[in-house]
Write a structure and sequence with these properties.
By secondary structure, this protein is an alpha+beta fold. 16% of the residues lie in helices and 48% in strands.
Length: 192
């Protein structure tokens, strides 16, 4: 089962931020989008999101059909690009009350660190990065309780009041493949 926990926190002068919880994904049969960059690549496009990205053509696009646990804010859009239920890129879009920009992203870092730490049970220190020209915070090797030996790379991408959470989740057997797909998605992510 794909894990995606949703939490929203409000701290004074810090925008609410969201993190992933437990999801069930089903194949949607909705295809990848168009304008493929290479024959072995699909392009994600969806009017519900304000971003595009490329991913390997052997990954299938699926819809998130059920949330096993959720607390706090709900995403306005959510999609999975997956190998199977345990190995996938989960992309969620949230609308924030306060814009996050390059100028104020450091003000949000400790809140996001705390959220990742509470949900994962491990120390968390994100690093501020640029993804597609947008301020972002990245966490590598976040341990999962399910699936067994599962790990996630979490990347929070901010486009002012839009937050995109990219959760690249994998098991040991598919980790290298999911990591390559995650790198491809993040390297090609752009505003649409």
């Amino acid at each position: 089962m794909i894990r995606d926990s949703v939490q929203a926190h409000r701290l004074p002068k810090v925008p609410p931020l969201v993190l992933v919880a437990a999801l069930v994904v089903a194949l949607a049969g909705c295809g990848g989008g168009g304008d493929e960059a290479r024959p072995d690549t699909k392009t994600f496009r969806d009017d519900s999101f304000g971003i595009t990205f490329q991913y390997p053509d052997d990954f299938e696009r699926g819809e998130v059909t059920d949330v096993a646990q959720a607390a706090g804010g709900e995403p306005v859009a959510r999609i999975a690009v997956r190998i199977d239920e345990d190995n996938a890129l989960l992309i969620s879009k949230y609308i924030l009350a306060t814009a996050v920009t390059e100028a104020n992203i450091e003000d949000s870092l400790s809140e996001i660190d705390g959220l990742v730490r509470r949900l994962s049970g491990q120390a968390a220190r994100g690093r501020i990065v640029d993804v597609g020209g947008l301020p972002s915070v990245r966490y590598d090797d976040v341990n999962l309780t399910e699936p067994a030996n599962g790990k996630s790379r979490l990347v929070f991408v901010f486009d002012r009041n839009n937050e995109y959470l990219v959760n690249c989740q994998s098991t040991p057997s598919e980790r290298a493949k999911v990591d390559r797909a995650c790198d491809q998605a993040l390297d090609t992510l752009a505003k649409s």
